[in-house]
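quick one: 3-methyl-2-oxobutanoic acid bound model?
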Amino acid sequence: MSVQSEIRRLTAPDILARKGGEPIVCLTSYHAHTARILDNHCDLILVGDSLGMVMHGLETTVPVTLEMMMLQGHAVMRGSKRALVVIDMPFGSYEASKEQAFMNAARVLKETGCGAVKLEGGARTAETIRFLCERGVPVMAHVGLTPQAINVLGSFRAQGREEADWGRIENDALAVAQAGAFSLVIEAVAEPLARKLTAAVAIPTIGIGASVACDGQILVLEDMLGLSPRVPKFVKRYTDLGPSIDQAVAEYAAEVRARTFPTAAHVYPMRAKKP
Ligand code: KIV
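yep, here:
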């Protein structure tokens, strides 16, 4: 007898079917406990390779490994029940050949149980995306600013600032959509271009710093919670947890130093001796 969860998890086709419909709510998560909270509100949870910068304090996402992604992918799958979980393929795990991409993506799907992977790159990645999709791997694509290319780009600058670049970015978006991607992250592009891309492709666009002209939105959770020391200009901080954590830790440290920290004696009062 098969044991099925009572809550049906969203799938890549469910997200694809939302093109032009109700906006798609997405956030990143790397942990079981934040994933549990996000699962109440989000359609899609991305285990982004931004974890290299957010969790590990790296300067870029380039050093992130497949093992790092899978470890946090397991945690997010354990914490969530309903959202589609997408895991980023890190730099160096899919570019060498479409066969390399398939071997690594299949491992991610089989070992974590997630529903899809994300690959950065436009036209240059289209052949790989087609290869994966034809073999049962749902792919979320990612164009505009592609942070894994930082060493070629030179900085995390907004893309398509000159209208002359729009054709190339539109070509990227069309190429990955035609290759079979079920959705498309558009990062750091101005509203008119985001609007143009959203109208041009038949798959949902998910914006990050790409205006409201997209079918859905994504942010890095720690950025919107005020836990990241440096955030892109476009990020709205919905709360500021940094100072709250600082205050709580300061209070704890003061109690430990003053020996007023609640000890086991408070929690487990001694029983009176029997006469
Ligand atoms: O790695 C990541 O968190 C991402 C999002 C910024 C889209 O790719």
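The CA atoms of residues 20 and 224 lie 25 Å apart.
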